[in-house]
C-alpha cells in the first residue's frame, strides 16, 4: 500500500532534496524502515541509540499524532499522508 | 461579545478614535475591544525576526504596554528579516532600536525595554507583569523556560518558530485543558542534531509571515474573540505555499501539565547550544 510521506525542510538534504515521496507500508514503522533503508543518513536524525523515535520529532498520520494512537505500530490506509514534523527553535 | 483578558481603559481621545477607527468599526472589536487593547500588556521574548512583526503590529494595534526582552545589539546580518531595526541602528541594543520604531509608529503606547537574557531565574518576575507572553526566541532551552514560566503563572503564550522555509505557530494555555509546549515536544533535541537559523539559513519574509500570525493570535486572545490555535499546530511551508494544521492533544504523561507532573519549578539553561 502506498502512502504520501512529507519530509520537513531540515531533513530534505538527507532525502535527496525531496519534499514529498511515496512509500510502501502497512504501518508507520514499515514506512520508516523503508525510508531509512533508502536514505540511511535519516536514521541518526530520527532515531535514538535504542532505535526509538526521537522525542523532538513527531509523526502525524493525516492530522493525528501517532503518539496518541498506536505509536509506530499505527496502521495505515491507502491515501493516508504521513508527515514528519521536527521541533524547530529559530526566531531571531 | 467575549471577555478580554485585561480591563479596558476608561475612555479614548478623539485622536485615538481616529487612529483606531478601522478596529472600532469591526463588531468583534468595537470601542470596548479597542479600549481593552489599550489596557492590555504583552511581553515579547526576542526582538528579532519573529519579534519584529509581532512588536510592530501590536504597537500599531494600540496594545497599551509592550515589553521586549533581548540582550543583543543590532547587527547588519539581522536586517535581512528583522524589519523593526534599520541600518542606522546597527550597534544599538535591539530593545532600544525596536522601541524607537514602535513609538514612531504609535506614540500612544508604552514600550518597556528589558535588555537582558531570559533565564530560569528571571522568567517568573518578568512574566508576572504582563497579560500575554510571545515566544520569538532562537533556541530550545529558552522555549522550555518560557513554556514552564507561562504555565506556572497561567499566562497565555503564543509560540512561533522558523527554520529555512518552514514555520510553526501554536497558542499555548497548558493550565487549561489544552496542551503545553512539552505536550507537543516532550524533549529538546540533543545539541548538534538540529541546525539553528544562523547555520541553516532562514527566508527573511518567513519571519514576517509567522510573526504576523503570532500577532493575530495575541490580539484574539487579548480580546477573547475567535478560536485560539490552542489544540492545533499551524505548519507553514513557504516553498509550497502550504498551510496545514495538525491536532495536538494534551499529553496525559506530560512532565509539566500532566496529572503526574514532575516539574514543579522553572529550571534549565537558556544558553544557545545548537550547533551542527
- String of helices and strands of chain B: HHHEHEHEHEHEEHHHEE
Mind telling me which CATH architecture of chain B this is? 3-Layer(aba) Sandwich
Q: Looking at CATH, which topology of chain B would you report? A: Rossmann fold
Distance between the first and last residues' Cα of chain A: 42 Å
Description:
The complex is a heterodimer of chains A (92) and B (276). Chain A has 92 residues and is of the alpha+beta class. In chain A, 17% of the residues lie in helices and 25% in strands. Chain A contains 2 helices and 5 strands. In chain A, a hairpin with a 2-residue loop joins strand 3 and strand 4 (64-65). In chain B, helix 4 (51-61) packs across helix 10. The longest helix of chain B is centred in the C-terminal third of the chain and has 20 residues, at 204-223.
Outline the fold blueprint.
The complex is a heterodimer of chains A (92) and B (276).
Chain A: E1 2-6, E2 20-24, H1 28-38, H2 42-46, E3 57-61, E4 64-65, E5 81-86
Parallel strand pairs in A: 1-5
Antiparallel strand pairs in A: 1-2, 3-4, 3-5
Chain B: H1 14-19, H2 21-24, H3 30-38, E1 41-45, H4 51-61, E2 65-69, H5 94-105, E3 110-114, H6 123-128, E4 132-135, H7 140-153, E5 157-163, E6 166-172, H8 181-184, H9 197-200, H10 204-223, E7 232-237, E8 242-247
Parallel strand pairs in B: 1-2, 1-4, 2-3, 4-5
Antiparallel strand pairs in B: 5-6, 6-7, 7-8
Helix pairs in contact in B: 4-5, 4-10
